[in-house]
Amino acid sequence: MTQNLAQANDLVLLVGRDDKRFFVRLVPGASFHTHHGFIRHDQIIGQPFGGAVRTHSGHPYLLLQVSLFQQIMHVKRATAIVYPKEIGYILLKINAVNGARIVEAGTGSGALTLALARAVAPDGHVFTYEVRSDMQALARKNLESAGALANVSMKLRNIADGFDESDADAAFLDVREPQDCLAQVRRALKGGGFFGAIVPTTNQVQTLLAGLLQDGWAQIEVEELLMRPYKIVPERLRPDDRMVAHTGYLIFARKVDEGAWTPPAAEDRAVEEADDEPAE
Amino acid sequence: MTQNLAQANDLVLLVGRDDKRFFVRLVPGASFHTHHGFIRHDQIIGQPFGGAVRTHSGHPYLLLQVSLFQQIMHVKRATAIVYPKEIGYILLKINAVNGARIVEAGTGSGALTLALARAVAPDGHVFTYEVRSDMQALARKNLESAGALANVSMKLRNIADGFDESDADAAFLDVREPQDCLAQVRRALKGGGFFGAIVPTTNQVQTLLAGLLQDGWAQIEVEELLMRPYKIVPERLRPDDRMVAHTGYLIFARKVDEGAWTPPAAEDRAVEEADDEPAE
Amino acid sequence: MTQNLAQANDLVLLVGRDDKRFFVRLVPGASFHTHHGFIRHDQIIGQPFGGAVRTHSGHPYLLLQVSLFQQIMHVKRATAIVYPKEIGYILLKINAVNGARIVEAGTGSGALTLALARAVAPDGHVFTYEVRSDMQALARKNLESAGALANVSMKLRNIADGFDESDADAAFLDVREPQDCLAQVRRALKGGGFFGAIVPTTNQVQTLLAGLLQDGWAQIEVEELLMRPYKIVPERLRPDDRMVAHTGYLIFARKVDEGAWTPPAAEDRAVEEADDEPAE
Amino acid sequence: MTQNLAQANDLVLLVGRDDKRFFVRLVPGASFHTHHGFIRHDQIIGQPFGGAVRTHSGHPYLLLQVSLFQQIMHVKRATAIVYPKEIGYILLKINAVNGARIVEAGTGSGALTLALARAVAPDGHVFTYEVRSDMQALARKNLESAGALANVSMKLRNIADGFDESDADAAFLDVREPQDCLAQVRRALKGGGFFGAIVPTTNQVQTLLAGLLQDGWAQIEVEELLMRPYKIVPERLRPDDRMVAHTGYLIFARKVDEGAWTPPAAEDRAVEEADDEPAE
Q1: Is residue D275 in some structural domain?
Q2: What's the pLDDT score for residue D271?
Q3: CATH classification of the domain holding C49
Q4: Is D274 a member of any domain?
Q5: Given this model, what pLDDT does residue C275 score?
Q6: Which residues of D111-130 are buried (b: 16+ CB within 10 A; e: fewer)?
Q7: Is residue C277 part of a domain?
Q8: Best mutation site among A246, A247, A249, A250 for testing chain D: the one with the most D CBs within 10 Å?
Q9: Of A43, A118, C18, D48, which residue is most buried, by most CB within 10 angstroms?
Q10: What's the pLDDT score for residue D276?
Q11: What string of H, E and C letters represents the secondary structure of chain D?
Q12: Does any CB of chain C come closer than 8 Å to the CB of residue A214?
């Protein structure tokens, strides 16, 4: 077990008394400046997490480890990222467990890539595809900064040209027209493999759904997740005034061998889904 | 890489053309009976996932691997379980990554325990406490069935008497009166350690929040997650008629050394929380 | 002021101690039967609202007036009705106030017609169109039973053939393909008149929106309303386990003279709508 | 029928091509100034609604009637107002129909008062109580501006001292501690009368609920309404990014004669409410 002390090169979180939060990479010789004064990183290195460090003028900052959640929220972004409320759910739905081999497109800023890499570590691997080299460079920097590159292969390619992998446990798409890549995804997945996608509009859901049904995928689901935060005042407990109303629609499915399965007809699909029934 | 074939002792999913789902543990010599006829497990063993197996009367069933999500949903339960939409979020919030050491109470049916064990594998460990021996026995059976016992220590004890661990990375409580165990949780956690809890009522949120604020915990949050499923009909895309409206309130916080931190006053807390601000 | 006593021919609500609710039309000589015994209507007539009436075996039933809300919820229905959570909002959005002249299609079971008739009474009028005579007959029965026919004209006609009215203050459509009737609605409305519609699917929203934008309608809005009920247990306050997740999408717009107005381009529309700004 | 032309003293809505909205009271001799130039009110008076008026530099503004919804949204406010999504629902739940006599406290900025006055017009009446004279003055100005004073009596009094009315059809409270006024509300209501309240926090819901149950009120309900707006882009239909997450909890109940009714025990109340069942 490592000691619970801040180390050189750690990414740490400093929280001021006004609840302002700062993510700081500890570099010997460097300094952290605030409007309450500065702290030299060397004063922070070796200090225990959960305690306070102080600026030269005595202002305290709480020293905390950075969680995976916080790393995800703070990747540098050039585009919208997939958010943790969706990421946690996606990891479970596409079975991103230790040892899994997962293909992903596009890489984007790498927020989901980071979460996938952590989830399949140490024995699994993430193969992430991106068409824009500037975006890939940004994601690489984010993953490197989070120390998550070991389990990731980054590929600069349009997945319309296919994935290199052919036996992936899962595939996830965050691209503009996922319905156009279903054949490529199918070739990349092993039998019964997990498929997931996120799209922002109902039009894209409709098109992707039509493609999945057409191609005979199984266990198709469409879902939205809403997160509602509360004010942390026990004597006046109530939700925040405003909330994020939309980040995207999630679509999941399972790959089926061609011809093995005939999807239920539309009128059956329209019926409220019965809950799963355990057997055994 | 293992072959993508069903093996003896695997837990597999069989899906009928009517979308009925059956979880079956493959045991040589056993049979699976449906109203469309039966299939001998020996016929299933060795078959590729993603294809169909057929009853003696020719009715096809799709053969699929069981995901962690599905294992969680299908633990045998004696009480309400924590649901996957919350579990995925909890795993990220309390930083349940490979190598983490996590204490949990109560074990309940073991649904969250299973997810925690998978998330911290192979190098981490889950220490799960439960007061009821019948419940612990049920959870043990569920974890064993999922092959997840290796990373779990199960303890039959009231956490009012304290945890054995003193340097846990994270703690999660799913107990009736979490506010009464905050001192014990604090002793079990390392500095800056992650705390999470789920409670069903607003009254419990109020009491737990008051306790956390009183004891100077940091980064306190209260949140609800809502999951809205859609009918999978592309030409008539719309949400399901009904949805689960409530499974629980999630509360998160970080342990702070005593005296290191003064929580903001209530009037400040009531103010809409500013978004985190990256620095570095 | 009328006396607060149940009268012959009143529709009243009887509530048992088990919270079972019965809507009863009081008819001299008739009887109301329950598994706790019977009550003769003559025993109820003349009793004050808010008190109890008793079966011959002494079981009490609470005697209450029936609200408009309850009348709406209990129209006899052959199809899905528009629900009160939407109705209240619709009445305000399309300005259904005393004196307004409103056209509606289709009549359906008459739930919304009933609410519109009450809202525009005593000086306004509702012109409601329906193609199915059996449906119209059902709605007529519901409106008659609620005493709301005085302000309603019922027409058996497909609105593809146009409305008779040409200066309506507002129009509301609950039909399968509202986008096909926009020209007819436009002719029925006065300048600046209010348009509303409810549709169940995202596909219909897309088509109707495209039609409204194409034809230069103003102040177009699309909204969903969600109602979340709570268990009424003060010491364990929490939402119900399940809720209605979808009843329909609401679309509103204002009629504009042809050529008077150019709708903003798509890229502008995509921008988050600014809040209204008061001037004067 | 009045002509569909803007009249002197009308409150009208002017909408710019950039979708900016201005509420203007038409006063002969006055002018309306924008950064696209000015329009003299005399140019607007006599113009048809639904058409455009133009500034001296030729910039068009759409001329529209102001709806009740818009009047409510644009009352001048000194405090939070009750919002239309709740108001429409409240009107139906407390049976605010033509002829009803309704007591309300506090008046606040008069947004709900305005809606109640319109709903009970022309034969009903609203008695609205307020303790702060500055607030009452503001509400009076808002009601006068909307032409809604005829059906309203405004009283400057703390309802702890009781209402003057004793046979009201309905009562609505938007006060800080509604549970302290239940005896006064009971005396103001007729038997079976409708009670409604809005409170922002779960703590207030708990206290009010306890009071209502203690005093034997019937048909108690607690509900929240959420409104989710969509971007009006048919080819990319999706919800807005953010939404209002909380405006208040709604509580409804019916007055019952003392001793006539024993409320169900807590364990029964905790059970999912059965839907109403029609009889007759």
Answers
A1: no
A2: 38
A3: 3.10.330.20
A4: no
A5: 35
A6: bbbbbbbbbbbeebbbbbbb
A7: no
A8: A246
A9: A118
A10: 32
A11: CCCCECCCCCEEEEECCCCCEEEEECCCCCEEEECCEEEEHHHHCCCECCCEEECCCCCEEEEEECCHHHHHHCCCCCCCCCCHHHHHHHHHHCCCCCCCEEEEECCCCCHHHHHHHHHHCCCCEEEEEECCHHHHHHHHHHHHHCCCHHHEEEEECCHHHCCCCCCEEEEEECCCCHHHHHHHHHHHEEEEEEEEEEECCHHHHHHHHHHHHHCCCEEEEEEEEEEEEEECCHHHCEECCEEECCCCEEEEEECCCCCCCCCCCHHHHHCCCCCCCCCC
A12: no
Put simply, whether A202 touches D (Cβ < 8 Å) is yes
> Does the beta carbon of B202 lie under 8 angstroms from any beta carbon of chain C?
yes
* Nearest chain B alpha carbon to C224: B239
**Looking at the structure, do residues A61 and A123 belong to the same domain, yes or no?**
no
Evaluate if residue A213 carries a pLDDT over 90. Answer: yes
**Contact between chains at D209 and C232 (C-beta distance less than 8 A):** yes
DSSP state of B19: -
**Residue in chain B lying closest to C247 (CA):** B241
Per CB-CB distance under 8 Å, the chain C contacts of B242 are: 242-245
- Asked if the C-beta of A121 comes within 8 angstroms of chain B's C-beta atoms, the answer is yes
Q: Out of D20, D101, D192, name the one closest to residue C65 (CB).
A: D192
Q: Structural domain of residue A29, as residue ranges?
A: 11-66
With respect to residue B169, please indicate whether it lies within any of the assigned structural domains. yes
- Confidence (pLDDT) at D273: 36
**Are residues B218 and B124 located together in one domain of the fold?**
yes
| Per-residue pLDDT tens over the stretch D210-250 | 999 999 999 999 999 999 999 999 999 999 999 999 999 99
CATH number at residue B116: 3.40.50.150
Average pLDDT for chain D: 91
Asked whether residue B160 falls in the same domain as residue B266, the answer is: yes
Q: Write the pLDDT tens digit of every residue in B67-122.
A: 999 999 889 988 888 988 999 999 999 999 999 999 999 999 999 999 999 999 99
Dihedral (C-alpha) D162, D168, D169, D171: value to the nearest 10 degrees? -20
Question: Domain end: D24, D49, D66, which one?
Answer: D66
C172 and C234 belong to one structural domain: yes
- Tokens 């469409």 correspond to A222
Shared domain check, D241 and D124: yes
User: Which residues in D lie closer than 8 A to residue A235 (C-beta atoms)?
Assistant: 203
Output the six-digit token pair for D4.
């569909």
Q: Which of residues 236-275 of C touch D (CB under 8 A)?
A: 236-237, 240-242, 249, 254-257, 260-262, 264, 266, 268-270, 272-274
pLDDT tens digits for C54-104?
999 999 999 999 999 999 988 998 888 898 899 999 999 999 999 999 999
Minimum Cα–Cα distance from A207: chain C residue: C203
Domains: count for chain D: 2
Q: Which residue of C has its CA nearest to D231?
A: C270
User: Quick one: pLDDT band at residue B265, thresholds 50, 70, 90?
Assistant: low
Q: Using one digit for the tens of pLDDT, what is the confidence trace for A104-155?
A: 999 999 999 999 999 999 999 999 999 999 999 999 999 999 999 999 999 9
pLDDT value of residue A229: 97
pTM: 0.93
Neighbours of chain D (3+ CB pairs under 8 A): A, B, C
- Contact C206/A at CB under 8 A: yes
Q: Report yes or no: B31 at the D interface, CB cutoff 8 Å.
A: no
**Sign (positive/negative) of CA torsion C19, C23, C27, C29?**
negative
In chain C, what residues touch B229 (CB-CB under 8 Å)?
245
Residue-level pLDDT at D180: 96
Same domain, B56 and B107: no
**Interface membership of D206 toward B (CB under 8 Å):** yes
The answer to whether C245 contacts B243, with C-beta atoms less than 8 Å apart, is yes
Out of A88-102, B256-270, C44-58, D32-46, pick the least confident: B256-270
Instruction: Give the minimum alpha-carbon distance from B170 to chain A in angstroms, rounded to a whole number.
Output: 11
Are A29 and A84 found together in one domain?
no
Task: Give yes or no: residues A55 and A174 share one domain.
Answer: no
Boundary (domain end) residue, out of C47, C66, C85:
C66
